Amino acid sequence: MTEHAPHPKIGAHFRRALASYTADAGVQAQIATGLAQAIAAASPAQGYRTGFEFGCGTGFLTRALRDRNCCSNWLINDLLPEAQAQIAPLFAGHRAWEFRAGAVEKMELPQGFDLITAASAVQWVRDVPALLARLTGALTSGGVLALSSFTPRHFVELRTLVPGNSGMSYHGAQDWQRMLAALNLLELRAAEQVLRIASPREVLLHLRRTGVNATAQVPWSRGHLSAFEQAYRAQFPDGAGGVTLTYAPIRVLARRR
């Protein structure tokens, strides 16, 4: 049986972050734009006709793909039903789209997509290889699977200070090469972006405002928070009085044979 992420908890965190996500998730917005550019560059001669995006959130990738006219028919998914209200204005006057809420691991997938994509969403899935097998099966011959996720270097500061607490599925380049061995790999690009943040407490607020602390299980007592802040400042100073927070995105594009 596939082990699923704790969807109710994840949904609750992202529901609270919906209002602040667009303003605070600048790195995720950049990742989505880069993924959309790569998708457009990999377009077949006839273009993408049918597309499936899962984990759409507030629509960073959806908007970037719409602006590039990547697909004429869309199936859009997110764990939260509330995401539909974020996405619907992007398709005003466009009839060939549909929204379905729920966990992508559990939803029934139609077949015959020319493009399946997600930005900063795969890491929430516990059994990534199983999901990739399902997604591959839903692609047309020559269809493109285009995903962005994060490597094990992602949030290295937090993973060092609170080991074993993320509950996330982070995979490096070699993992992706292995998981996508049945496809023709078009692009595999990993990078790092280090943010400078005023304090460890501001780091925690940043995580809360973007919903990415959804699987955290730290009991934040006053003493625990104080010890965390001291350790964070000592181990990860930014040289200007603040601290660092490392984003480590990875982008993969592959074509079904």
Record the SSE blueprint.
Elements: H1 7-24, H2 26-41, E1 50-53, H3 60-67, E2 73-78, H4 83-87, E3 97-101, E4 113-119, H5 128-137, E5 139-150, H6 156-161, H7 173-179, E6 184-190, E7 193-197, H8 200-210, H9 222-235, E8 243-247, E9 249-255
Parallel strand pairs: 1-2, 1-4, 2-3, 4-5
Antiparallel strand pairs: 5-9, 6-9, 7-8
Helix pairs in contact: 1-8, 2-3
Describe this protein's structure.
The protein is of the alpha/beta class. It has a single domain (7-152, 166-191, 248-255), classed as Rossmann fold (3-Layer(aba) Sandwich), CATH 3.40.50.150. It has nine helices and nine strands. The chain has helices at residues 7-24, 26-41, 60-67, 83-87, 128-137, 156-161, 173-179, 200-210, 222-235, and strands at residues 50-53, 73-78, 97-101, 113-119, 139-150, 184-190, 193-197, 243-247, 249-255. The strands form two sheets. Strands 3-2-1-4-5-9-6 form a seven-stranded mixed beta sheet, with helices on both faces. The chain has a two-stranded antiparallel ribbon with strand order 7-8. The radius of gyration is 18 Å and the shape is globular.
Number of domains: 1
General form? globular
Query: Helicity, in percent?
Result: 25-40%
What is the second-level CATH architecture? 3-Layer(aba) Sandwich
**Residue-averaged pLDDT:** 90
Structural class: alpha/beta
Do you know the CATH topology?
Rossmann fold
CATH 4th-level superfamily: Vaccinia Virus protein VP39
Tell me, what is the CATH class? Alpha Beta
